[in-house]
Amino acid sequence: MITYQDAPLPKFGNYSTLGIGKPGEIVVLSGQLGADADGNFPTSDGVEQVKATFDNLGVALAAAGLGFEHVIGFRTYLVGREMVPDFMKGRMEKFPEIYPSGVYPPNTLLIIGGLVEEAARVEIEALAVRPAAS
């Protein structure tokens, strides 16, 4: 991912203002929730749901032969403004593992009234770019 140093700096968390994918196929990941493989939410804790959601994104990326380094943007949906601190904490706990360089993709954050499952507190979708064949 290429980022521009002269782009506006993020004001509300750890993310890049923009990202530009290198040539290759675009891969769109639908919104992932913090549920396990059986569709159960092992916890109602917001921080843990955020971390589980990133884990599920990792599984989806791996299925496409990609990793988090291929992600050029996230769109995050949180149920209620009270989820923002849990999201920030969960992301700060997870990002050093998935982005050891400290360079994060852009993220758009939306506050919504609910998700497809009542127990879901967060949903994150991603846009990634598959590297061009050499």
Automatic annotation (TrEMBL):
This is Enodribonuclease L-PSP [Hyphomicrobium sp. MC1]. SUPFAM superfamilies: YjgF-like. Gene3D superfamilies: RutC-like (3.30.1330.40). Transmembrane segments: none annotated. InterPro entries: RutC-like_sf, YjgF/YER057c/UK114.
